[in-house]
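Here we describe the complex-level prediction in full. Unlike the single-chain runs in Section 2.1, the two entities below were treated as one system.
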Amino acid sequence: MNPYAALTTTFGFRPDTPPLETLPTGVASLDALISGFPRGAISEILGPESSGRTTIIHALLAASTSKFEICAYVDTDDSFDPVSASAAGVALSQLLWIRCGHNAGHALKVADALLHAGGFGVIIFDLCQISTKVANHIPISYWYRFRRAIENTPTILALIEKEPLARSCAALMLAMKRSKTVWKGAPGFELLRGVEFEAASRKPVRQAAANLNAKAI
Amino acid sequence: MFACLHVCGRRASAPTGPAAGLSKIAEAFSPWFEQTAPDTIVFPIDGLKRLYGKPEQIAQAIAQHAGAAVNVAIAETAESAILAAHNFPGITVGPELDHLDISTLPITEEMLETLDTWGIRDLQELAGLPETGIAERFGEAGVHLQQLAKGATHRPLRVFQQATTYDDRIELDHPVDLLDPLLFLIARMLAEQCEKLQAHGMAANEVTVHLELDDKTEHSRTLRLPIPMRESKSLLKLLQMDLEAHPPQAATLALSLSLKPVLPRTVQTGIFLPATPAPDKLELTLARIRGIVGENNVGIAELMDTHHPHPYRLAASQPKITDSQPWTDRQAFRYFRPPIAAKVELQRDRPARIAALGIYGKVLNAAGPWRSSGGWWTQTVWNRDEWDVTLSYGALYRIYREPSQNWFIEGSYD
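The structure predicted for the assembly as a whole is:
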């Protein structure tokens, strides 16, 4: 008997699963790096302030809504900006926006309700602005529950945060970094032109990183 | 065979006159009847033969029920019965219409004049004319008139149907305090009404529960559904969540339920279209979420045509598929709601250092001020100078100054 197969049966390891279907974002460099966000799985996008996390999320939402899918944005800290999302190509009429009023507990319940309702293309769970103390109090069981809820469905659950939260439950972990802010004009008369970001895949681990540019709104 | 009732006399069309009760008389003899005019009603009597016997006996029974002010006529066709009831007083069975004047038919002045010049005076003469000649001169209307004159017009009745209501009411023997027993009763009422909707091929887009309370007050809740529904379980769950959020203030003595019927939603689905949440299931999910985060915090963002710093609103509706475009490389913005109050040091009227809760640093680059104001004629007046700034650790923020010289951090570019 194949030793791997023996281990699988003896210790109850999960058998090899086929590669997950992905949703390309339309950002060429990022799609070349990770070939899109995996469906039926949790993806984490993490990074500090102004590192391009939300820009990536807008790209993901735009890709999903352009495929006529319904999406949801669980906005823990009321930080979503419809104007910049619309400018990035997100069809707002296909996006359900839920403001949770700075209450992470409510946000978790809302995300749970949405995941179990089913039928969504992408569900964004925005935890960027919650404090580390609150983040550490989120039971790990929530992430297992969420992973279980979307398994074998076409839904993508994307978390945006400062530090990893779902960890082993996530199929994709993107670490964002700001490379450069582009200003033009003489000192005193400068204009913001855009930002350059760098996305590194921590899970699955990739040596290369993707470079992204975003123009100022 | 058909019977026609016609109210003769000047008071026929009065709202309290005999014509007002015609439909009730007709209902006593047949569930199907057509009201051709306010004072005329016609219905089939084939089913009455076993009850009353011959047509004469049926006519007698109807006349007895209708009273003296109503002409009763029985004929082979509905149109012949109508003609007879209009032109013969009392009871007429199998009428001889041959010698009726042609002006008794629904005829135009022009046709009447032409027929008069031809010497055609009564229905028998009109019926005797060659049909092709009538068709050549008067067209379809002429042929129809001739068929009426012959008594050979067979048409289905345009049956009068009373508007169906989907209402129910229960009076309780004892006041009920708790919501669960009430929901048990509502479930029963809902199931009955939804079955009725299903049988009639309808759905409801509005459900109202009206509770009469022990303290002589009333409590009413209305659910306006974004899509017509007729699944009693879904409606019950929605009502349950609504009543839990807005419970009655006293025990309930009576409750009534009313559903507003509309045509059900028809959707063309496609095999290659992505699966979207089922509308009724989504509505339940939204109701559940509204219960968690509040009614005004769930919906679709709608952009508004204004220069206001927050040019959007949250519309409480379900998402719907529209044409959309692919991603364009625009930088995203994140709001701090509420904006964070900040202390800003200025150098030559430009921000040089910022200090706020969790955000502080030297300003490396700043673009501004972008002055905007408006809405002074409304409650939502705004007036501010905006700056885009990069701090020493690289974060990019939008800050603004109010006329009161107070500074705030509105959000970050992310």
